[in-house]
phosphoenolpyruvate--glycerone phosphotransferase (Providencia vermicola), 481 residues
Amino acid sequence: MIGLIIVSHSKLLADGVLQLAEQIQNKQHCQIITAAGVDDDTHPIGTDAVKVMEAIETLADATAIILLMDLGSALLSAETALDLIDAELAKKVHLCSAPLVEGAIAITASASTGASIDTILNEARQALYPKQQQLNEANDITEKETPAPSSFSEKAMMTEWLVQNPSGLHIRPAAKLATLLSGFKAKLELQNNEKRADAKSMNQIALLQVHQGDKIRLIAEGVDSQEAIDAFNQLAQQHFGDNISTSNANSLIGKAAYVPSVTGFAYHIPENSKLCTFSYQGSKHELETATQAIKRLQRQLNILADSLAETYGKEIANIFHGHSVLLDDDDLIDSIKQKIEHESITAYDAISQVFSEISEQYQQLDDDYLQARFIDIDDLKNQLLMSISSASSSPLVLSEPTILLTHHLGPSELLHYNNANVVGIALAQGSPYSHTCIIATKMGIPILVNLGEKIDEIPENAKLTLSVATETLTIEAPISA
């Protein structure tokens, strides 16, 4: 088993990278933990050699441990940690210079196949190459690192597949394919037109830049060639693990003639406001109130996730299971406790402040996908505050097709407004990468985000037309300038 430790100045960043890597992780062969940030609520950005040391010791049973660092001082912390641990354990540790995100994905994908440490580190060192090649910035990559075509005899076997995945062979399907084929002894090469790659390497598969509609070819030669071909064909028929609308190899791919729009009447979702005014009842009482609210919400989220799995599938259920796990974070609980004890504030205000701070940190991230997670944080905050206030939302009664209007909409709020007459959602802000958008799409509800503050001026019950195709929300009468 290979251990991977993500060493970052930001715990939020490390957790985000971990979340990405977990999508392709085989825990039998690869364990991943983080050693990120410092225990200082005022200045949480930094690295701690002791945290890194403890992380290494946690993975002491691994055959090899890889430390992946984000910035220079993270490397210093990693090197200091090596001086603090047992010399024999230190021999297992490898400091890797690969970029944090690409390196973590490459290491996880390769380690999850049971590859050797040398192969894993080599994959990590080449992790930037696919991106550099796509951006024509790969001139500094040596020929030795460039995938070399293999030679095959007349005994080689071949199979072809027309890729139907809308996003082609992106990170997850490429990792699944490399993981599957790495278990075979045969020499395997994947081809996309004139491009060739080692079919056991996720990085090299990425170099093929396989898009929807491309015909890829697998060539195999060796003792278990037929088995490799059969395994490839089976995974291909499952679209390499992607859930796409085409369900079997007999499906035909075409172009939609049009994307229908929806028409409904405007309904402005009321804004959240402070539900109650509470007085401070002592730190013990307030901490118990906060703890119980978090535990209640965790139970509710897990129950909700299990019910959604049956209706919308595991992908949607995992969003809410993830929210439950987030609430179990020791640092989160400790931050709320510190607020209550040191500032003598109520559980309501402590939760509001801590979650608002976390939300703000997410909003400062450059990565659009990770930045969108602030919506989930705000959603959890609102649910906790409602729980403390013993407040509940009345079911939405709609008699006509309706388009919901608001600024932000969290995943749990979306489910609250799940009504047969909700035909569309229009948000002033939000993010196309949010879980809200993912769930709405799964529910078949068209949604537009980032429409701006002008939606506040749309009259209640105005007749609207929402078109995802043109990304427009049209009303019967123009909005005043």
Remarks:
- The first strand starts at residue 2 and ends at 8.
